[in-house]
Amino acid sequence: MGELTFIGMGLHSHDGISLKGLSQAKEADTVFAEFYTSLMPGLNHEELRQLVGKSIHVVTRKDLEEEEGKEILYASRKGKAVLLVPGDPLIATTHVDLRIRAEKQGIRTSIIHGASIISAAIGLSGLQNYKFGRSVTIPFMSSGIVSETPYDVIEENKNRGLHTLCFLDIKTDEEQYMTANQGLETLFKLENRRRQSIIASDTIAVGIARAGSENSLIKADFAPQLIRFDFGQPPHSLILPGRLHFMEAEALVTLAKAPESVKEMIT
């Protein structure tokens, strides 16, 4: 029986990999890595190769999705293979699909978790993790069409008093990484279409930039003001809070430099 291990590398750079993950990569017969599901701005490919001590085969979206990970599965059947993944390995559904394929082929699979933007963004914001509803991705426009799914998800969560974590679209092949400002622009375009006051002048939003790095940044403000804030280099994420507990409001003011008036929005 072969073996395939999914190893999370964390959020920012190659040194976010755990000691256990590094040990497993060093023991593997074949090491693969994908870097298209998330941006790791501090990643140094040569330093990662030196850490692992062997060649690293970088796979693309086409390799994993269109080719169904055939190269990885073939190496896994022959011996021990690992796949290095940004963040936490099974957040992306493409990795879940690969694991299912491996198991169906009699390949033993295992997971070594890494830091995820889900826990990092929530932790940095100071908002309470059990008050988050469904997450959503804000995509780039396609042929001038804006998906209304983000608006629907935020509306549903807000009606329940819950916060929404918004992932921002990336196109690695084209080196396009949506900024928090662009994400808010998209939401305002949807508001102009839907007019249900989900994104309004008194809507608080939270932007997170470069979580996991030494120069991570978090800023909360009313959406019309936040859209003009300079978050610097990507990756970015957005949070649209629902009802605020008094400690959450205090956290946004103290940790994310939100206006003091946020404390008056406690419900």
Which key terms come to mind for this protein?
267 residues; alpha/beta; Cobalt-precorrin-4 Transmethylase, domain 1; Methyltransferase, Cobalt-precorrin-4 Transmethylase, Domain 2; 2 domains; five-stranded parallel beta sheet; five-stranded mixed beta sheet
What does this 3D model show about the protein?
By secondary structure, the protein is of the alpha/beta class. The protein folds into two domains: 110 residues, Cobalt-precorrin-4 Transmethylase, domain 1 (3-Layer(aba) Sandwich); 149 residues, Methyltransferase, Cobalt-precorrin-4 Transmethylase, Domain 2 (2-Layer Sandwich), CATH 3.30.950.10. Helix content is 35%, strand content 20%. The chain has ten helices and twelve strands. Strands 3-2-4-1-5 form a five-stranded parallel beta sheet, with helices on both faces. A five-stranded mixed beta sheet has the order 6-7-12-10-11. A hairpin with a 7-residue loop joins strand 10 and strand 11. The termini are far apart.
- Count of DSSP E strands? 12
Structural class: alpha/beta
Low-confidence stretches: none
CATH superfamily of the largest domain: Tetrapyrrole methylase, C-terminal domain
Q: What is the structure about, briefly put?
A:
The chain has 267 residues and is of the alpha/beta class. The protein has ten helices and twelve strands. α2 links the parallel β2 (30-34) and β3.
Task: List the topology elements.
Elements: E1 3-8, H1 19-27, E2 30-34, H2 45-52, E3 57-59, H3 61-66, H4 70-78, E4 80-85, H5 93-104, E5 108-112, H6 117-125, E6 136-138, H7 149-159, E7 164-168, E8 170-171, E9 176-177, H8 180-194, E10 204-209, E11 217-222, H9 223-226, E12 236-240, H10 246-255
Parallel strand pairs: 1-4, 1-5, 2-3, 2-4, 6-7
Antiparallel strand pairs: 7-12, 8-9, 10-11, 10-12
